[in-house]
Amino acid sequence: MRWNREHLATLTAIVETGTFDAAAKQLSMTASAVSQRIRALENQAGQVLIVRGTPCVPTEAGLALVRLTKQMELSESEAATVLDKAHSAHKVSIAVNADSMATWFARCLPDFAALHPTSVEIHLEDQQHSAELLRTAQVMAAVTSDPHPVQGCSAQPLAVMRYVPAARADVVVRHTERGKLNWNTLPVVHFNPKDAIQRVLLAERGAKPETQHTVPSSEGFARAVLAGMGWGAMPLLQCQKHFDSGKLVPLEPDLYVDIPLYWQRWKIESRVLETLGDIVRKRAQAI
């Protein structure tokens, strides 16, 4: 089936902006013209592609067409780059968890930039939720903890990221009674509501500390733990130097959580995505 590119672009604009009016403004056209294009596209598809509301939500068929649109844009842009070396290739969007970005993934960016004149857009998302951004066509590739590939994507193992519950030594001493750590009185630092590591460890111990902080920044999270605000599960890559210096100590011997990481990307022929994947897998070996 041959799709009208203007209609596909209109559908994508609605999904990205959330409303017909915002899409009309982005495309420099009237809202009624946007509606006409979507009706024509839905007639061709034989089904509803957008659930009208605030915001508008694409159906599974709608998402499939948005993915198709962005994949065509990427392929065309790569071809244009080959034909015209001065041409800047289409933007590549990637979902990465904050801890990976703060410890190893950022090193991938200059490696990639040296090989491709491609704009990169990073979406920071928890590794347990980043696959959803792939499913909704918001990104082309993602670092995720989900080994099951999203429809239309491939999945490859990267490495295992080890998290160690840690705190300042004086904080641990203050909340240790008769040689046993009191998890109920020991304050905890969470990254955000999606961050499950601390909550799982507390649930396993039946602990419900009264003082619970939330610091949604990988660097800020580490600073909060270093400042003595409480304990937090930190990537070993991030906290090993603080263990060596004595600034932090593990809460319990041999207590850690391993999170396997995977690289998922669109399953299309793309020199840009292939190069990016090679760089990411190489850098992940340092974890």
From TrEMBL:
Domain HTH lysR-type positions: 1-59
Organism for this UniProt entry: Neomicrococcus aestuarii
PANTHER family linked: HTH-TYPE TRANSCRIPTIONAL REGULATOR ARGP, TRANSCRIPTIONAL REGULATOR
Name of the protein this chain belongs to: Transcriptional regulator ArgP
Family to which the UniProt record says this protein belongs: Belongs to the LysR transcriptional regulatory family.
Molecular function, one GO term: DNA-binding transcription factor activity
SUPFAM superfamilies attached to this UniProt entry: Periplasmic binding protein-like II (SSF53850), Winged helix' DNA-binding domain (SSF46785)
Keywords of this entry: Activator, DNA-binding, Transcription, Transcription regulation
